C-alpha cells in the first residue's frame, strides 16, 4: 500500500501529489518515473462532450489532493484498478484515465513550460501499455510499499 514520505526523501518510483502555488491552482498526480502527469477533470459520461480540466482554490485543491490518496487507498483495498483506457468510436484515438468517484484523472505528457494537453495514443495497445505503467504505481499490490508524497511548497 501507500507509504507517505517526505518529498526530499522520495525515490525515483514514488508517486507525487502536487499542488502548485497560486490562488487558483491544479492538483497533479505525478508518477515520478514516467513521462506523464495526471490531471483531474469533470466528465458527465456523455461521449459528445469532452471532460473539463479542474482548477481549484488553494484550500479546495488541498482537500482534493487528500481525497485522491484516500481514493487510491480504497482502490487497492477493494482490488479495483482505477486506471482505464478509453477510445473514440472509430478506434483511432485513445487516452489513459484514472477514475475516482469525483474525477477522471487524464494522462498528460509532462512538458516543462507548456500547458498540459491530454495524451492521445494512436492504438489501444499503446494506451494499454502506458496504463499498465501508471497502474503499477497508482494501484500497487496490497503487499507493495509504494512511496507517495505531497508537494505543496517546492516548485521552480
Short description:
Helix content is about 25%, strand content about 30%. The protein is built from 2 helices and 11 strands, in the order βββββββαβββαβ. The longest helix has 21 residues, at about 60-80.
Distinctive features:
156 residues, alpha+beta, PH-domain like, 5-stranded antiparallel beta sheet, 4-stranded mixed beta sheet, 2 helices, 11 strands
Topology:
Blueprint: E1 2-4, E2 15-18, E3 24-25, E4 28-31, E5 36-42, E6 52-53, E7 56-57, H1 58-78, E8 83-87, E9 94-99, E10 104-109, H2 124-138, E11 146-151
Parallel strand pairs: 1-11, 2-11
Antiparallel strand pairs: 2-4, 3-7, 5-6, 5-10, 8-9, 9-10
Explain the overall architecture.
By secondary structure, the protein is of the alpha+beta class. It has a single domain (2-151), classed as PH-domain like, CATH 2.30.29. 23% of the residues lie in helices and 30% in strands. The protein has helices at residues 58-78, 124-138; strands spanning 2-4, 15-18, 24-25, 28-31, 36-42, 52-53, 56-57, 83-87, 94-99, 104-109, 146-151. A five-stranded antiparallel sheet has the order 6-5-10-9-8, covered by helices on one side. A four-stranded mixed sheet has the order 1-11-2-4, with helices on one face. Strands 3-7 form a two-stranded antiparallel sheet. A hairpin with a 6-residue loop joins strand 8 and strand 9. It starts with a strand and ends in a 5-residue tail after the last strand.
Amino acid at each position: 500500500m501507500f507509504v507517505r514520505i517526505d518529498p526530499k526523501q522520495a525515490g525515483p518510483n514514488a508517486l507525487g501529489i502536487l499542488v502548485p502555488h497560486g490562488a487558483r491552482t491544479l492538483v497533479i498526480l505525478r508518477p515520478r518515473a514516467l513521462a506523464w502527469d495526471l490531471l483531474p477533470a469533470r466528465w458527465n459520461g456523455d461521449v459528445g462532450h469532452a471532460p473539463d480540466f479542474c482548477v481549484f482554490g488553494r484550500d479546495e485543491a488541498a482537500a482534493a489532493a487528500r481525497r485522491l490518496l484516500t481514493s487510491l487507498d480504497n482502490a487497492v483495498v477493494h482490488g479495483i484498478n482505477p486506471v482505464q483506457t478509453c477510445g473514440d468510436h472509430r478506434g483511432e484515438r485513445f487516452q489513459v484515465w484514472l477514475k475516482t468517484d469525483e474525477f477522471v484523472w487524464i494522462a498528460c505528457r509532462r512538458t516543462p513550460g507548456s500547458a498540459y494537453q491530454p495524451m492521445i495514443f494512436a492504438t489501444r495497445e499503446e494506451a494499454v501499455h502506458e496504463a499498465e505503467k501508471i497502474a503499477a504505481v497508482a494501484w500497487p499490490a496490497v503487499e507493495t510499499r509504494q512511496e507517495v508524497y505531497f508537494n505543496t511548497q517546492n516548485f521552480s
